[in-house]
Amino acid sequence: MSTPTGPPAPPGGPAVLAVAVEHARRGVRLQVALRWVLVVFVALTVAFVPPAHSLVTCAVIAACYAVFALAVAVWVHRGGDRAIRLAWIALLGDLVVLAALTLLTGVATPQSWTSDVLITGFLLLPVLAATQLRPRVCAAVVVPTVVVYLVASIATREANQEPWSSLLLRAVIAAGVAAGCIGLSRIQRSRVEQIGGLVQTRGELLAELGDLEERERTSLSEHLHDGALQYVLAARMDLDDARDSADPEAFDRLDRALTETSRLLRSTVAELHPAVLAKAGLPAAVRELAATAGARGGFTADVRADGWPSDLRTTADPLLHRTARELLANVAEHARARTAHVTLTFADGRAGLVVADDGVGLGPDAAGPGGGHIGLASHAVRIEAAGGRLRIGPGPSSGTVVAVDVPADPA
User: Histidine kinase/HSP90-like ATPase domain: which residues (predicted)?
Assistant: First the structure.
């Protein structure tokens, strides 16, 4: 049977590995502490339930075991990560000591109770192995422990005059404890990986948070500079022409420029603070977002809200509006799409938002840790916190389909 000695390698990157190593270090510390329970158990057994023969040999073995436990504790304390990775090997030393004492006291001195007491110490070894975050390593310890426990029980059965039924029942209990410890090790490993994934996601979000405000400022500045400001400058030039020549066409151009400036400013203000969301409802607010994003990205956008009553206001409206803005902005900036379709639905206390485009597409992990789309990742976290779900998939022929489903109560 192979006995893996490498370090844990959970998926997810350095943050997950760091969490796994820290929890592994705690587990090894617990293992070192519990070993002293076993050392005291062996010493007290030899002292208060001594064998009729070979007492000196048993005392020497118990003393050497105490020295071994001390050496392992010092090695783990000073050995760093390498000691953490290899500390499980010391469990095989525990197994050898218990097996030697049990066989020595059970076969050589059958008239004593020493082996009957010592054999119960085998049940602590699977618990020590369960402190590992590697189920394979745990199995590499507990399987030999159960085998040696059974062999020792059989070897001392005749001397102790124990019936086979009793021996087999004890073996079943030992196997059950071993299986439970392997399962516990797997559960602990899974929890550590989940915690590590959350730590990594948090780190990525915090790393991007510092740049988020600057990007928003830059985007707003470009929007105003390339849109409303250009119309204002053109209107100023037309106003100068109108003053000099009183040309009616100059006044017409001035009117168009000011009208377009007003539209662009309203659009920008609506993105920053969507008053239309409360006044006209989510479908109207999303139509404004779609029109603005379509004009910016050069694609045609339509909004279908047949499944959303026009007078409906829900608790999920702000979240869905922010998500729609992020998704449409991604279509405008990255998708190189020709068309985009937005669908809003509400039924049975749940609100739905679907944004589909025919662009270049996104990967299914775009909203996850390390997906490279911090906006999608942050919105996915908000949606999950609200009890909903954000799913990303490919379109029927090309592009991307993003579906959002969240619980919503009428407001």
Answer: 315-410
- How are beta strands 389-394 and 400-407 bridged, if at all? antiparallel
- What CATH number does the domain located at 279-407 have? 3.30.565.10
d(C-alpha 303, C-alpha 4), whole Å = 57
Token pair 């030039």 in the structure block, residue: 237
Bridge partner list, 347:
350
Give tens-digit pLDDT for 58-89. Answer: 999 999 999 999 999 999 888 778 888 888 89
Degrees (nearest 5) of the Cα angle 127, 128, 132?
Answer: 105
Instruction: Using alpha carbons, list the distances in angstroms from residue 189 to 87, 129, 214, 405.
Output: 17, 13, 39, 31
Sign of torsion, CA 223 224 228 233? Answer: negative
229-240 b/e (C-beta count within 10 Å ≥ 16 → b): eebbebbeebbe
| Mean pLDDT score, 295-313 | 89
Q: Which pLDDT score is estimated for 364?
A: 53
Longest dimension (CA), the chain: 126
Characterise 399 by phi-psi region: left (phi > 0), alpha (psi -120 to 50), beta (else): left
At position 34, the amino acid (one-letter code) is L
| Amino acid found at 163 | P
Closest CA to 297 of 320, 321, 327, 277: 327
- Following DSSP, what letter does each residue of 144-199 receive, concatenated? HHHHHHHHHHHHTHHHHT--HHHHHHHHHHHHHHHHHHHHHHHHHHHHHHHHHHHH
Tokens coding 293: 């994003």
- State the Cα–Cα distance between residues 289 and 316, nearest whole angstrom: 17
Tokens of 206: 């915090």
Number of residues in the chain: 411
The token pair at 294 is 């379509």
What are the extents of the domains in the chain? Answer: 14-203, 279-407
For the chain, the helix, strand and coil percentages under 3-state DSSP, each to the nearest 5: 70, 10, 20
Confidence check: pLDDT of 365 > 60:
no
Residue 96 in contact with residue 150, Cβ under 8 Å?
no
Q: Are 34 and 91 in contact (CB under 8 A)?
A: no
Q: Which two tokens stand for residue 382?
A: 């908000």
73 exposure class (CB count in 10 Å sphere: 0-12, 13-18, 19+): middle
- pLDDT tens for 176-216 read 999 999 998 889 888 877 877 777 777 676 666 656 666 66
